[in-house]
Amino acid sequence: MRREVTYSAAAVFLLVIMSIQSCGGSGVSLIFNQTPDNACADISQSSATVQCSDGSLTFEGSALTPDPCYYLTSRIDTMNKSDIVIAITARSAAGDGDTSCVECIGRVDFSGELTNIGSCSKHVSIVYNGVTIAEHD
Known about the structure:
Elements: H1 9-16, E1 19-23, E2 28-34, E3 39-40, E4 47-53, E5 56-65, E6 70-79, E7 83-92, E8 106-115, E9 123-128, E10 131-136
Parallel strand pairs: 7-9
Antiparallel strand pairs: 1-2, 2-8, 3-8, 4-5, 5-8, 6-7, 9-10
């Protein structure tokens, strides 16, 4: 059975909104974006790529979700001299009561940038729901 995906205005705003997080007083900022038009998955696992140059780290990927009615949150989990861990978590958008959803495994595309990190010689991990989906040395 397939049901149509509909979102309330509040859910659409939440899916489109860009998350910006700062790390203490270090001047480091995490900018996180996600695609507002989540879809049924055409991939077999969550994955991401990471690049670093000139003191900025960029990443992009796709995350599998239980259904397309999920959005992602992100945060800087670890930031020290040798390691950076960016944690991404799936959250259900069904709590607003106006959401009906297609019954399939969902996919949410995302991208982000971590600015002012200094040297690119750090070990970087992108972790989605507790599982490392990308690393960069």
